[in-house]
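Posted in: Structural Biology > Protein-Ligand Complexes

Title: Requesting predicted complex, pyridoxal-5'-phosphate in pocket

I'd be grateful if someone could produce the 3D structure tokens for the following input. Sequence and ligand are given below.
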Amino acid sequence: MSRIYYTKPSITELEVKYATDAAANGWGERCYDYIHRFERQFAEHLGVTHTIATASCTGAMHMGLAALGVGDGDEVILADINWIATVSPVVHLGARPVLVDVDRATWCLSPESVEAAITPRTKAIIATHIYGNLCEMERLLDIGRRHGIPVVEDAAEAIGSVYQGRRAGAMGRFGVFSFHGTKTITTGEGGMFVTSDPALYERVLTLSNHGRARGETRQFWPERVGFKYKMSNLQAAVGCAQIERIEELIERKRAIFNAYKQALAPVSGRIQMNPEHPGTQNGYWMPTVVFTAADHFDREALLAAFKADQIDGRVFFWPLSDLGVDGVGLHSDTPVAHAIYSRAVNLPSYHDLSEDEIERVAKVVRDFA
Ligand SMILES: *Cc1c(COP(=O)(O)O)cnc(C)c1O
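-- Reply #1 --
Done. Output follows.
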């Protein structure tokens, strides 16, 4: 029986061809060619005016928040259910993360909890579209407008997710993406900063180039201390192939989710899977099963059952407030986040997963339920 990994990238001859070309020819005058092409194609896909390829999503978030002026003593609101990557830039900038509860229907930050957590020090709201599920952007953007606080999107998991005709990552003041090897499209490691705000773009562009402004004619003349979070041309070459294949990659993710949904229909009363609310499309980065609270549920036993069948199970993110990590402390009660995480697992979903393998995973879940 073959092992079923929880993710792995989809690499074809096209990625190999572009990467080979970049390694052979992408130097000197051509050392930015794939980077600029990838940035342009990603902007077109998303429907934004400006993009900056970065070394990681975390780096893109760090620069974006810095460009918004987030600093010492400021507060930034985000969901308690998040990967540490989303909160670490807030801590690095000397600001305080304010962790709020999630919504039962979306598993993303709850607009009521966000509004209740706003103080005069609130400098930004980070909307993370968890596992491809969309935040309630209309309500969050309205809260941001009324309080004069920018809403930014962590769309690392939301390639292929669309909210009322707009792609995830294109709705906030800025959005950030990850191309880590586990994500829907990959460059090995990598990320993207996106915005349609030209002034913010210029600030992040300067920050991303060690503080050197675009129009500066003096060599090696920074106007401030910046960052070094650039993507290399070699990585961007792989990205160019992936973005050319993006429709296919998104479709496959959606097909895998729908196959799981069908295979798990007999136990649908005992589980909740990633929602797709009216007016939205879910990119289904990670098909997830949450067992309903009425049942007894032993997560460790389910993970053991997966393991016995050579299947990689993956736990839902822990609430950040439970990690006990320094600086990640300020939070209110987050009962929904706590009710969900311990009853949930992610299912394998790489593009080459076969129908038989999906059935093998689904059978373990069905037997368990
Ligand atoms: C993967 C991920 C990140 C981190 O991305 P890197 O490219 O590894 O920095 C940030 N936020 C979310 C929601 C993620 O899933």
